[in-house]
């Protein structure tokens, strides 16, 4: 990937898998997941290793991952699209915070352009994989339309994201069974849900809740966001002004896209670092942008001033201040309180207030699931991934020929996904050049352990015991810093002392 905007060239040859007489199909690289990460991984592999056979297994019946699964009103990215789009394929719009439909179309268009759509196999749920040290390959257990299937591969790549696609997180609410209206979780939004003229309460204060509120306001009779604690929220222009400016100039996307992208990268990195180092000043900046947008009678301190510092949890952005517009129009409201109980007509709060509701939306977060629930084993012995240590945020100690893609928590997911793809391409080239078949990160026992993710968000804290660890120094530490990762992942030598080759 030498050019910032050059899309991976699609090789005209079709890399083919091998099915020996025994009937077990073998591919060189097996990618699990056909979402943003899996499609990008396959594109980079086709560009860097056109002769390798690649298959992408997707448990659902469609590509797109998150952007096909979530169908709630207004679903959108909470990262700007000039960094959320692939580095090598310009985002084709001025829209900074795009809705789910635009993102899904972008991912599928890229897959078609690169011929990756032909590599995806749907309704293939990967259950487990066992590494055979003698053969230097994975044997992968799959369920295809309810029937067992086995494949083998030389390299296994988990691009499943980090949350459970089957169910989201829903706390136990007292009296839930008494409520006579409809209860909906955004992860499983009913296609026929009619909320026109209804009273709706959205429980939650994260990105999903602040998206639902302005999207449904005006159609509902009234919609209320019920939050236990506030979230830091900042307005952001719905379109990127630099992209708009460059559109008036006779310059190709190959020139303008990297400029806009790097402007946004530097803004992301700088704002995060400054907020972490100077939290008091960061709070003041957020207040200066947010408080003037609130209607009279809505307290910033009560509803928009969290007790924690910025970026202890993920900071949320709203395009063109749409959330605040809904509040000012009187179509929506925010209540900060705790739930005493559900009852027949809504929610009774600890303060004694009652929220009448016809529909309750539990936007209470995700349920994390490491590597899509994939069970790994080594020569028949189960690997406990919670005891493994993450190497550069893309491989696991003690697990050979395995990579995974998990994006940044403080910036666009795809920034990290692109780097992981580049690294795997370089790693496979290194194996080829030196006649090697296997590589495994070897943990240094002197490296101290840290939690895999350092956000205090509930959905992360609930799952930390099941996730790998990170270390207290490189290359085992996850710095969550794109600029540093460009150096350590994209440019550092492959054969460092933490990797063992055979």
TrEMBL record:
Cited Pfam families: FMO-like, NAD_binding_8
Keywords recorded for this protein, A-Z: FAD, Flavoprotein, Monooxygenase, Oxidoreductase
Biased segments, Polar residues type: 1-19
Enzyme class, first EC level, given as a word: oxidoreductase
Statement: the UniProt record of this protein carries the keyword Oxidoreductase: yes
Alphabetical list of SUPFAM superfamilies matching this protein: FAD/NAD(P)-binding domain
Keyword Oxidoreductase: yes
Domain of life: Bacteria
Enzyme Commission (EC) number: 1.14.13.-
GO molecular function: oxidoreductase activity
InterPro entries on file: FAD-binding_MO (IPR051820), FAD/NAD-bd_sf (IPR036188), Flavin_mOase-like (IPR020946)
Disordered: annotated span: 1-22
Cofactor: FAD
Family affiliation: Belongs to the FAD-binding monooxygenase family.
Protein name as catalogued: NAD(P)/FAD-dependent oxidoreductase
């Amino acid at each position: 990937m030498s050019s910032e905007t050059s899309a991976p060239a699609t090789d005209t040859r079709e890399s083919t898998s091998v099915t020996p007489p025994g009937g077990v199909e073998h591919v060189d690289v097996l990618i699990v997941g056909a979402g943003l990460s899996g499609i990008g991984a396959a594109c980079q592999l086709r560009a860097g290793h056109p002769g390798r056979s690649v298959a992408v297994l997707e448990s659902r019946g469609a590509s797109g991952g998150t952007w096909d699964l979530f169908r709630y009103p207004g679903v959108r990215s909470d990262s700007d699209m000039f960094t959320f789009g692939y580095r090598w394929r310009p985002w084709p719009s001025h829209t900074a915070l795009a809705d789910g439909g635009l993102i899904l179309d972008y991912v599928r268009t890229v897959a078609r352009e690169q011929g990756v759509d032909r590599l995806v196999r749907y309704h293939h749920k990967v259950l487990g994989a066992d590494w055979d040290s003698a053969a230097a390959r994975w044997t992968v257990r799959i369920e295809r339309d309810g029937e067992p299937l086995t494949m083998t591969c030389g390299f296994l790549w988990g691009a499943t994201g980090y949350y459970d696609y089957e169910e989201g997180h829903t706390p136990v609410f007292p009296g839930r069974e008494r409520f006579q209206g409809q209860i909906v979780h955004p992860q499983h939004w009913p296609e026929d849900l009619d909320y026109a003229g209804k009273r709706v309460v959205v429980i939650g204060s994260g990105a999903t809740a602040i998206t639902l509120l302005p999207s449904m306001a005006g159609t509902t009779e009234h919609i209320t966001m019920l939050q236990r604690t506030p979230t830091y929220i900042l307005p952001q222009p719905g379109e990127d002004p630099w992209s708009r400016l460059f559109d008036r100039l006779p310059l190709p996307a190959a020139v303008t896209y990297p400029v806009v992208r790097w402007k946004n990268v530097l803004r992301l990195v700088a704002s995060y670092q400054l907020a972490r180092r100077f939290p008091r000043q960061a709070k003041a900046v957020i207040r200066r942008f947010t408080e003037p947008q609130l209607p009279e009678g809505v307290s910033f301190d009560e509803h928009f001033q969290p007790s924690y510092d910025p970026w202890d949890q993920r900071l949320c952005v709203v395009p063109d201040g749409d959330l605040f517009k809904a509040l000012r129009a009187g179509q929506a409201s925010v209540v900060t309180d705790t739930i005493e109980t559900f009852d027949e007509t809504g929610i009774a709060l600890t303060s004694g207030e009652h929220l009448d509701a016809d529909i309750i939306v539990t936007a209470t977060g995700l349920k994390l699931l490491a590597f899509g629930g994939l069970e790994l084993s080594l020569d028949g012995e189960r690997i406990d991934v919670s005891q493994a240590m993450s190497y550069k945020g893309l491989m696991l100690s003690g697990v050979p020929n395995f990579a995974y893609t998990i994006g940044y928590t403080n910036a666009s997911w795809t920034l990290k996904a692109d780097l992981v793809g580049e690294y795997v391409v370089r790693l496979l080239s290194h194996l080829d050049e030196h006649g090697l078949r296997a590589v495994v990160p070897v943990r240094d026992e002197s490296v101290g352990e840290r939690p895999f993710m350092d956000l205090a968000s509930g959905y992360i804290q609930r799952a930390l015991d099941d996730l790998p660890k990170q270390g207290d120094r490189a290359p085992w530490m996850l710095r969550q810093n794109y600029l540093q990762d460009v150096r350590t992942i994209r440019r550092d030598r492959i054969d460092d002392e933490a990797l063992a080759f055979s």
